[in-house]
Amino acid sequence: MEDYRLNYFLKIFLQKYKSGLVILFIILFFSLHLTQIQAFLQSNDGEDEEDEFNNIDEDYDGIDDQYEEINKRQIQFEVGATEISIESRLKSGEKQDEIHFVIKIEDEIRINMEYESDLGTSEIDLELKLKFFTLLEYLDVNLDGIFTKSIDSVVQEIAIESLDFFPISYSTLNNNSLYLFNITSINSLFSIQFYIASEFFMMNNVTNTPTQLKLDIALRNFPFVQNDTQIALGIQFEGENEYELNEETEDEKQGRSQGESEVELFQNNFTGFFSWSESLYVNDLVQKVNISALDISEEGTELYFSYPHGSKLLHDPKLGVAGILLSPPSPTEIIQQLVSLLQLPKEGYLFVMTLITLVVIAGILLFRKNKNN
After folding, report:
1. How far apart are the C-alpha atoms of 246 and 251, rounded to whole Å?
2. What is the pTM of this model?
3. What is the tally of structural domains in the chain?
C-alpha cells in the first residue's frame, strides 16, 4: 500500500512539475559548469597541474588542449634600438596577473622581471633583476671545470659594456603566438635571443611555458689567447635579495624538461627563477656546463657559467615565475564555489548535495517514465 501511494505521488508530482525539474536541472548544470571554470581561472596550485585533465591534444604539441586554453596569455611589447618592454597577461579570468620584462643594452645587458599577481591592486609581488656583465678567458688551475676567482687565473676579460651592438630586432613565429627578440654584438662575438609566447611551445625537446622567457646565448669566434683555456660568462643578480641555488627546477618536476638547475628568489609567497640547461653545444657537440658557487657582495650575487674551449657555443637559460600556471579544482572546491555563488550559509554544503541528489533521482524517474511510455 505504501509503495502504491509513493508511486502515485511521484506520478502526480512528475506530471505537474516535470518542466520545472528540467529547468532546475539545466540551471544547476550551468551553475556547476560556471563555477568549475571560475575555479580553473583562480587556482594557482601548480603541482601536478596536468594530471586531472582528459589529455586531449588535437594540436599534437604534448600539452592538453584545455590546460593550454586556461593558461593562454596576451603578449604586448614595445621595441627600441636598445630596449625591449614585454607585458604578459593572463588572457581570461576575473583575476588577471601580469609578468613584465624589461631588457636593456645599458653598459651591460640587463633584464628586469616584475610580477603582479592581481592587476587590480597595482602592487608588485615579485621583482628579479640580473645582468650579463663580463666574459672571461681563464686557465683552470685546479682542473675542476669551474671558474673560481681565488684559484683560477684570468688570461683576458671582455666586458659586455665594451661591445657595440646592433639595434634590437624582432620577429613573430607560430602564427603570431611566439615572439623572438634578438640582441647581437656588431662583431658577432656575443648574442642573446629572447623567446616569449602566449601559449606552450616546444623547442630543443623542451616544453616552454607562457610564464617564462627563454634565452639562447651564443658565443662565436671568441679571440682566445691560449689553447688550454675556458670561458666564464659572468651574471649578477642585483639587490640584497637572498638567492638559492637548486639542482631541480619546476619544469623538471612537471616533466617538461630534464637536466636543469636554477637560481631561485622567493618574495611575498611567489617564486622567481633563472634556470639553465646543464649542457650546451660546443662546435655542434653536447658538453657539460659547470657553474660557480654563488658569490655574494654589496653589489649583488654573482654566478659564473663555465664553458669549454670552442669557436661556437650555444646555451639556453630561462627566466620566469614558478607556480602560477592554473590547475583544475577538486570536487570540494567546486562545491565551495557553488555555495559562494548562491550566497548560501555554512550549511549550504548539505543543501547543495541534497539538491544534486534530488535532481539525479528526478532525472532517473523521468527516464523510466519516458521508457515505459
Report:
1. 12
2. 0.76
3. 1
